[in-house]
Amino acid sequence: MTSRNQQLFEQSQKLIPGGVNSPVRAFRSVGGTPIFFIKGVGSRLWDADGKEYIDYINSWGPMILGHAHPEVVAAVQQAAANSLSFGAPTGLELEMAELINKLVPSMEQVRLVSSGTEATMSAIRVARGFTKRNKIIKFEGCYHGHADALLVKAGSGLLTFGEPSSAGVPAEVAAHTLTLDYNNTQMLKDTFASIGDEIACVILEPVVGNMNLIVPHQEFLQTLRDLCTQHGTVLIFDEVMTGFRVALGGAQALYNITPDMTTLGKVIGGGLPVGAFGGRKDIMSVLAPLGPVYQAGTLSGNPVAVSAGLTTLKLVQARGFYEKLTAQTTKLMEGFKAAAKKAGITFNAQNVGGMFGLYFSENNPTSFAEIMQSDKNAFNKFFHSMLDSGIYLGPSAFEAGFVSAAHTDQDIAETIAAAEKAFAAL
User: Is 266 marked active-site?
Assistant: First the structure.
């Protein structure tokens, strides 16, 4: 019999490009049929065929409390009863800005948007308007949304600019974007020595989650902060994924590095579409209606989405929340490594807070080049074995995973048992 998942995918491909509304959902990297879900509660998901899974994607991060948390659902219901949207100011927006500023003090002023892509795109525009410069730096393997200037892959030389990695991106747009190697401190120094006074901003994921989990070197982050200060370059931390995920104050609190601007998303929406960007007051003052940099959004600060985010942010402030989340994630990683070792499989794993990375490699990778050397085929086989056992991991060897506060000791034990079976099959 054809499963309901297969039926839905076949029908979807007729009307939706590739059958999905975001490419990573398509299972192209791992093969097979994407899972269509109908329900999520706590750490668990149920698909269109009624099969139950332990979820380690958590909507790519925002479900830090687990699915359908009763307090978040109640907040959404209450807000929705008053109207789904106004297109006008509400007190909830101020409450969100105050809370973000309290938890992430570097964000002296905040503007809400509807997605992480909007947040990073707008932050770069503000940085360019503030510095009156055009060039920007990003790092290979870091993803900051699908704005044209950010869909650029690295060149082979130190100062090789702008080769678009997506059709539809004009070379002229990409020409101002320079891609460097993540964690390469010397490359940073050489680049700033050459063109430092021409660089409007540097944007990076302070803990990378979009080429699997890559942990930054402290020296790399500190050097970046020092060089940006020296050259008047705006340092943007893209904490769309790490914000309130790796620590209450984000990665900047964890590594004690203060950026000039920060972008947020995921957790601050509690499962609904919300993003934010903010930073130093003098930088944010160039935004319209105060300054010449234009940015707008009809649904920015949507009351239903902001209500979900506010409730989530209030709950994650509970005493010991992040300590417990980190401990559960670490327990899972240690279980994975022990299961691989028992089976004689080359494998590594690590986590930062509730984010984790799984690698079929000798060591934990520290750069895009190193992550590309991991055994993708082994991951694909492992992924499908885990999926068969009801464990839902990211369908790519190049995506980080997420543990929520709803994951219990039983969830961890069941996952490790499934991993032992999967590694044995490899």
Answer: yes
User: What gap in Å lies between CA 89 and CA 273, rounded to an integer?
Assistant: 17
**Is 4-64+320-425 CATH 3.90.1150.10?**
yes
Mean pLDDT rounded to a whole number for the chain:
94
The partner residues of 55 in beta bridges, in order of sequence, read 392
Q: Which residues contact 274 (CB under 8 A, 6 or more apart)?
A: 112, 113, 114, 265, 268, 302, 305, 306, 308, 309
Query: Which tokens sit at 294?
Result: 């234009």
Q: pLDDT tens digit string along 73-108?
A: 999 999 999 999 999 999 999 999 999 999 999 999
Of 181, 266, 322, 392, the catalytic one is 266
By mean pLDDT, which of 44-53, 165-174, 175-184, 228-237 is the weakest?
A: 165-174
pTM comes to 0.95
| Maximum Cα interatomic distance, the chain, rounded to a whole number of Å | 65
Q: Please report, for the chain, the start and end positions of each structural domain, with discontinuous segments joined by +.
A: 4-64+320-425, 70-315
CB atoms within 10 A of CB 24: 17
Query: Which two tokens mark 407?
Result: 């994951």
Helix (H, G, I), strand (E, B) or coil at 317: coil
Q: Is 47 a catalytic residue?
A: no
| Catalytic entry in 55, 181, 238, 260 | 238
Q: Which among 43, 100, 392 is positioned nearest to 264, based on CA atoms?
A: 100
Name the amino acid, one letter, at 137: I
Active site residue 409: no
Which residues, 6 or more positions from 225, have their beta carbon under 8 angstroms from its beta carbon? Answer: 235, 257, 258, 259
Reported as a single tens digit per residue, the pLDDT across 193-208 is 999 999 999 999 999 9
Give me 355's structure tokens.
């984010």
Per-residue pLDDT band for 165 (boundaries 50, 70, 90) equals: low
- Judged by DSSP in three states, 200 sits in strand
For residue 359, give both structure tokens: 């690698």
CATH topology of domain 70-315: Aspartate Aminotransferase; domain 2 (3.40.640)
CA–CA distances in Å: residue 164 to residues 21, 88, 138, 179, 188: 22, 37, 13, 11, 21
Q: Which of 53, 143, 255, 359 is catalytic?
A: 143
